[in-house]
Amino acid sequence: MLPLAAYTAKDWSRLRPLTLAYRTAARTRQMRRYQAVPPADMAGFEAMAAKLHGQPLAISIAFNQPWVIDWQQRFIARNMHDLAYMVADNSSIPAQAAEIERLCAERDVPYVRLPGNPGTSASRSHTLALNWVYERVVKPLDPPIFAFLDHDLFPVVPVAPSRDLDGQPFYGRLVEQPKGWSLWAGYCVFDRAAIAGYELDFSQCWYRDLASGGANYERLYRHFDRSALRFAHSWYQEVPSDEAPRGSLLERHDGWLHMIDASGHGSLGTDRRPAMERLLAAIEADPEKVATWPASSRTL
């Protein structure tokens, strides 16, 4: 929570300190209850955990889009070899979850199905999923390094998240607000030994206008000198018009291409799938293609 002196007269006139405190407490209780729910297939989870225990790990949070996970797995297999990769499925549609599970089984990709998520918004569902995975997957599997990935994030050139850390406690895309900063929850990497003693929370932080993962400003980030850290190089990539999905801009974070809103929660919708699949197929066939795309004048 912000120091009381940091709230403006307008904040107090709207009782913002009190409403935010109540809202945060209620959502923290909900998160703790959700984290207490074990995986439905406990035997399957324990068998998977035995194979992955102690390995550096990248965890993708899936949501209702098997085709996105299909492409991510193909690019991960080609371009990321320093971390084990698994899918944590937060899908709300059982048929989609079954298809994602099938894809993972076909390719021998570790998979865990999350319990039914009580989040009533996309952002809340995502933060609950991240915190469940942190408690129920990261802690038991004890990876020396772990990363969270959005399901619509594709390594279009060779990447090595563990090398990106290079002695830092964490690495990823920097998100800045006037009252604080955090790493984007769609691409963040952590050295667990370096952050030992900090209990992470991937919830939003409304006090500081930070989205998913922003609660880690209080828990973790504020204890480190931001000016001494490196972060992902992030920019908008202009896609050639004959290959462009709806809207010609995609995000780039180092060697990763971010589709943006694959789940269709935002205004872009899901009608970009045919164009995105053509685009990803073109990159798969010719990995040098993305090097010729210009960076937009719009920066992240």
Q: Would you mind describing this structure in some detail?
A:
- The chain has helices spanning 9-13, 16-35, 42-52, 66-79, 94-106, 122-141, 161-165, 216-219, 273-285; strands at 57-62, 84-89, 111-113, 145-150, 153-155, 170-177, 180-191, 234-238, 249-253, 256-258, 295-299.
- The chain folds into two domains: 42-228, Spore Coat Polysaccharide Biosynthesis Protein SpsA, Chain A, CATH 3.90.550.10; 234-299, no CATH class.
- It is α/β, with parallel strands linked by helices and 300 residues long.
- The chain is built from nine helices and eleven strands.
- The protein has a six-stranded mixed sheet, with helices on both faces. Strands 5-10-9-8-11 form a five-stranded antiparallel sheet.
Order of helices and strands: HHHEHEHEHEEHEEHEEEHE
| Rg estimate, integer Å | 19 Å
Contiguous low-pLDDT stretches (5 residues minimum) are: none
Q: CATH superfamily of the largest domain, called what?
A: Spore Coat Polysaccharide Biosynthesis Protein SpsA, Chain A
In the CATH hierarchy, the third-tier topology of the largest domain is known as Spore Coat Polysaccharide Biosynthesis Protein SpsA, Chain A
- Strand order, sheet with most strands: 3-2-1-4-7-6
Structural class determined from secondary elements: alpha/beta
Query: Which overall shape is indicated by the principal axes computed on the Cα atoms?
Result: globular
The share of residues in helices is 25-40%
Largest sheet: 6 strands, mixed
